[in-house]
Each structure stands twice: as structure tokens, then as C-alpha cells.
Amino acid sequence: MCRAVALAAAIAVVGGGLAACGGGQEQASGGKVELSIGTFTEFGYEELLAEYQRLHPGITVKHNKTGQGGPYHQQLFTKLGANKGLEDVVAVEEGYLSDVLAKSNLFNNLEEIGPEDVTAARWLDWKYQAGKDKKGALIGYGTDVGPLAMCYRKDLFEAAGLPSDPEAVKPLFASWDAYFAAGDEYVRKTGKAWFDSDAQIFNAMHNQLPTGFFTPDDTLAIESNAAIRQNWNTVTAAGARGQTAKLTAFSNEWNSGFKSAAFATKTCPSWMLGVVKAQAGPENAGKWAVTAAFPGGGGNWGGSYLTVPKQSKHPREAAELAAWLTAPEQQIKAFLKTGNFPSQVAALESPQLLDTTDAYFGGIKSGQLFAEQARKVAKPQYKGPGDGRIQETVTSTALQAVEQGATPDEGWQRVVDGAEKIAR
Predict the structure, then answer these.
(1) Which InterPro entries does the record associate with it (predicted)?
(2) Exposed/middle/buried for residue 251 (C-beta within 10 Å: 0-12, 13-18, 19+)
(3) What pTM was estimated for this model as a whole?
(4) 234 with 176: CB under 8 angstroms?
(5) What's 2-145+301-344's CATH class?
């Protein structure tokens, strides 16, 4: 009966269905169970956690929320090392997931302790598989994702004689060759930058490779994987031809660049729409557009997982909470509140998501667009421990150095040296 209710709820995407299935564990334990959950930035869980406690009178949940992801994850690994202090449910951003999977012995296998009716079929396959360690243990239930599309300035395209309709621009973003060729044309006609920074483009290209900076046996591949160097050469060459605005992502100059038309295109995960609107401002509504196309076919930037550390004194109750929060109906509620794009198959088929439009981007059906992009992602990229740190602190800073005058070869040597230090 419970399995049938959960299936019906997932199809209908209405609130409360899975919660009705979940009760009992806390009552079987003979009293109140106090759980804690740790998250960062904005997951949209405040109202959901209050709802969960109403539906489960024997459960109380304390929510520890940190403003920034960097300090949050630093504390996470400190508490892991000390074997104390972690919450019962711990959120992990996908950029740090490889480091967590390398310590998977400190986390519970959710396929063993989670509700039986929570199966792989709930999630996009690539999202589910990315939450597993090398032995096949499921360490995290997927929350949101960041499927990639391309944002661009319609008015700047029109001024350069390029097509500007969201359907008409798709051929410009059909492949990386097409993207950089269009960039050359744009620079030639306008003398202005095509994209924001070398690092943002390199990261997108790199994340489409089957493996990241490490091989599946966790050997550093910075020099053995020729595709990494090829992407480096391609991006730095485009930057040298004037395509980069040389802006460090999330800096004040980068923020103001959206308003000042400092670049014509932007790699756009679903959550980037909110950034564009906030930074470009209401005066640029209708000038920015987004299309369901991305060079190389598709990709993902962002998203998180809910894990249950072995430090938890109530692992099964914690897994049940994590399962409920990542059910499609709860993820739709989080999406409507915060814009976090769900990774659950039934949520991606929900009219509440598919009918979502964005007036700022010309009334585009943004929910439908990003659901389409999410399905274009194939297999998850293998990332070894330290992979995220190499991308964030090594390749990005080395590309900035190239933009400021270092040669591509000099920048690449910085990458090799920095990656080797992290891999030791």
C-alpha cells in the first residue's frame, strides 16, 4: 500500500504523499527523536522542515544553515576528521562530492538504511549514479541540479548582425567550434568581448569530459589526458583573439558586467537566471535571452546531495528525512520557493515546473527549457579527491594569469604544478 501511495504521489506531484508512508520509525523507538540537518546558502527547506515535523509528531528537526558553501564544507571535513559534531543529515555540494566519496566509509549507504520505496527510478540516472562511491554504495540522495543552457544579449547580437531569436541562435551554440567561430565574428564586427572569462568557458568544456583531473583509479591525469590540454589551448586561443572580457566570476566587476554589456554570452545553469536578473537589473529586462542549447550537447553546473554520516545516532530516521526532502513533491515546493531545479524524474514532468515562465527573459518557458537540458546530460564525470579544488584554485587562477599577460604555456605549467601539490 505504501509503495502504491508513493508512486501515485510522484506521478501527481502533490504534497504529503510520501510523508504518509514514512511514519512509524520514531514511534517504534518509543519517544521523541531529535534530528539535525546542515545546509548552506538556500535550499528552501524552512517550510518543508516545519511540514515534516507536523506530519511526524515524534520527530523534531534542528536546521543548521550556513551562508556560504566554502566555509560550510571546510567545517564538514574538519568534523569528519574529528569524528564528531556533524548533523544527522548533511548537505554536500557537487563540487565537494568527490572528496566526500573518498571518505565514504564515514557515511551510511542509503540503499541499505533508507526507505525501501526510494529507488534509483526517482532520479535522473546521471544524478543518482554520481552519488555512489567506487563500491556502489549510495552516499547521497540528490537534491537539485544545474543543467546548462546558454544566455545571451539579444540587443548585442542584433547590433552585430547575428540572429537573436532563441530558436534561431541555436546553431551558434551547436558545438564549441560553432561557438568560438560566432565569437570571432562578433569580435570582428563589434570589437567587444564574446564571453566573460576564459575560466568559465574552460570549466564548462572540462566538465563534459568522461573523467576529470583524475583517472578512475585516482591517478592525476592533468598531463596524461590530452583532452584537458586541448581544451586549455582552445580557450586561451579564443581569449587571445579578444573573445574574453577578463572578468573573474562573482567579482564586483563581473557582477556589473551584466549591466554594462561587458560580454554577449554567458554559460547559464538554471540558477544563473537569478544572477542575471539581479545583476543586470530591471532596466535590461528583455535584453537578455536564454535558449535550450549548449555547446557539446549539455552539461551540469551545481546541485547537491543529502548524506547521513555514521556519526548520526538516528541513521534510519535521518535517511527517512533525507528521502522525504528529496521526494519530487518536496523538490517542486523548493523550486517554486528558491528556483533550485529538481533532479527527480516526476518533478521534471510536473506541470508546475513545465509551465513556469520567466518574463525577464521574454516569457520563455524556463522550467520546460531546463528540464530538456537536464535530460541531455549523459553519464556523470568521474572526479577524484581534490578535483574540485584543482578547478577552483588552480585552473581558474592560472587562466586569469593568462588573461593578464602570462603565456598559455606559462599558465599551463602553473596548472601542472598546482594540481600535483593537491594530488600528493
Answers:
(1) Bact_solute-bd_prot1 (IPR050490), SBP (IPR006059)
(2) exposed
(3) 0.90
(4) yes
(5) alpha beta
